[in-house]
Amino acid sequence: MKTTNIMIVGVGGQGSLLASKLLGQLLVAENYDVKVSEVHGMSQRGGSVVTYVRYGDKVYSPVICDGEADFIVSFETIEAARWVSCLKPDGKVIVNTQKIDPMPVITGAAQYPENALDEMTAGGVAVDALDALSLANEAGSSKAVNIVLMGRLAKYLDIPAERWLEEIEKAVKPKFVDINKKAFMLGYNYSC
To answer: Where are the domains of the chain?
Structure first.
């Protein structure tokens, strides 16, 4: 089996590390060789956070280079644009349409690029965009954006939704299981 490369990108505080933990645990439980590597920016206060998840029969390195990602799961629009160079020509970007102003925008030193998703699509990038924040709120918590996006990613992987739901039960505190399962299914069943 070929190695599948997934990048999870976002800003600090969005739950990308829990998402990568959930994905990694699921893949290990499915008997894949899995390598996960986290790269933190100023992750505690809105800095860029990147996690690499690679899986297959045998994986030797956790790092994903330019042009190697099968999927980029982005918790925020600018982060999708920032990392799109890592995508394979036939790869897919799954992106939350939420916009979080980075520090240069907050301070007035830069403007938020309004057409980032349109530019990626015009450049031939396969973009699956959804308002994951609205879906998370529908599930019961704005903090479930990460699980909504994992639900969307699950549509493209060969692992049944039921297995994901079992791993969610193991990965989150019991009082949040129902919200996270609902969030996952909202992402999984989302249609444009």
So the answer is: 4-188
Cβ neighbours for 25, distance < 8 A, ≥ 6 positions apart: 167, 170, 171
> From CA 12, how far away is CA 9, in angstroms rounded?
10
Distance of alpha carbon 9 from the chain centroid:
6
- Radius of gyration of the chain from Cα atoms? 16
Strand order in the sheet with 48-56: 33-40, 48-56, 4-11, 69-74, 87-96, 126-130
Question: What is the rounded CA–CA span in Å between residue 181 and residue 169?
Answer: 8
The CATH code of domain 4-188 reads 3.40.920.10
pLDDT digits 0-9 by tens, 133-163: 999 999 999 999 999 999 999 999 999 999 9
Q: Provide the pLDDT confidence category of residue 44 given band limits of 50, 70 and 90.
A: low
